[in-house]
Protein backbone atom coordinates (compact mmCIF):
# COMPACT_ATOMS: atom_id res chain seq x y z
CA UNK A 1 0.00 0.00 0.00
CA UNK A 2 2.94 2.32 0.61
CA UNK A 3 4.48 1.54 -2.78
CA UNK A 4 7.64 0.18 -1.17
CA UNK A 5 9.13 -3.24 -1.87
CA UNK A 6 8.64 -5.71 0.98
CA UNK A 7 9.51 -9.33 1.63
CA UNK A 8 8.64 -11.65 4.50
CA UNK A 9 11.07 -14.38 5.54
CA UNK A 10 10.68 -17.15 8.12
CA UNK A 11 12.52 -16.35 11.33
CA UNK A 12 11.56 -18.96 13.90
CA UNK A 13 8.98 -21.51 14.95
CA UNK A 14 6.45 -20.86 17.70
CA UNK A 15 6.01 -23.25 20.62
CA UNK A 16 3.22 -24.86 18.59
CA UNK A 17 5.49 -25.35 15.58
CA UNK A 18 4.00 -22.55 13.49
CA UNK A 19 6.33 -20.33 11.44
CA UNK A 20 6.99 -16.79 12.63
CA UNK A 21 8.02 -14.37 9.91
CA UNK A 22 9.96 -11.14 9.78
CA UNK A 23 9.07 -8.52 7.19
CA UNK A 24 11.70 -6.31 5.60
CA UNK A 25 10.62 -3.13 3.82
CA UNK A 26 13.01 -1.47 1.40
CA UNK A 27 13.41 1.88 -0.24
CA UNK A 28 11.68 2.75 -3.49
CA UNK A 29 13.20 0.88 -6.47
CA UNK A 30 15.65 -1.02 -4.23
CA UNK A 31 14.06 -4.44 -4.80
CA UNK A 32 17.35 -6.21 -5.55
CA UNK A 33 19.01 -4.83 -2.42
CA UNK A 34 16.01 -5.90 -0.34
CA UNK A 35 16.11 -9.42 -1.77
CA UNK A 36 19.84 -9.61 -1.04
CA UNK A 37 19.17 -8.67 2.60
CA UNK A 38 16.37 -11.26 2.82
CA UNK A 39 18.63 -13.96 1.36
CA UNK A 40 21.43 -13.05 3.79
CA UNK A 41 18.99 -13.20 6.71
CA UNK A 42 17.69 -16.63 5.66
CA UNK A 43 21.25 -17.93 5.43
CA UNK A 44 22.03 -16.64 8.94
CA UNK A 45 18.87 -18.03 10.55
CA UNK A 46 19.11 -21.43 8.79
CA UNK A 47 15.36 -21.89 9.05
CA UNK A 48 14.42 -25.53 8.39
CA UNK A 49 13.04 -26.31 4.95
CA UNK A 50 9.41 -27.33 5.13
CA UNK A 51 8.75 -30.52 3.21
CA UNK A 52 5.66 -29.50 1.23
CA UNK A 53 5.10 -32.90 -0.36
CA UNK A 54 4.41 -34.51 3.01
CA UNK A 55 2.02 -31.70 3.91
CA UNK A 56 0.24 -31.95 0.55
CA UNK A 57 -0.10 -35.73 0.92
CA UNK A 58 -1.65 -35.26 4.37
CA UNK A 59 -4.10 -32.62 3.08
CA UNK A 60 -5.12 -34.87 0.19
CA UNK A 61 -5.75 -37.77 2.58
CA UNK A 62 -7.86 -35.62 4.92
CA UNK A 63 -9.89 -34.09 2.09
CA UNK A 64 -10.40 -37.45 0.41
CA UNK A 65 -11.58 -38.94 3.72
CA UNK A 66 -14.02 -36.05 4.31
CA UNK A 67 -15.36 -36.31 0.75
CA UNK A 68 -15.94 -40.06 1.25
CA UNK A 69 -17.75 -39.39 4.53
CA UNK A 70 -20.14 -36.94 2.85
CA UNK A 71 -20.74 -39.24 -0.13
CA UNK A 72 -21.89 -42.14 2.03
Automatic annotation (TrEMBL):
One of its GO terms (cellular component) is glutamyl-tRNA(Gln) amidotransferase complex. It comes from the Eukaryota. InterPro entries: Amidase, Amidase_dom, AS_sf. Residues 2-35 form the Amidase domain. GO terms for biological process: glutaminyl-tRNAGln biosynthesis via transamidation; mitochondrial translation. GO terms for molecular function: glutaminyl-tRNA synthase (glutamine-hydrolyzing) activity. PANTHER family: GLUTAMYL-TRNA(GLN) AMIDOTRANSFERASE SUBUNIT A, MITOCHONDRIAL, TRANSAMIDASE. This is Amidase domain-containing protein. It comes from Sphenodon punctatus.
Amino acid sequence: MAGLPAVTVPAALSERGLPIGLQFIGQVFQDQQLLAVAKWFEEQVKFPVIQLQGIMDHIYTVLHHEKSAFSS
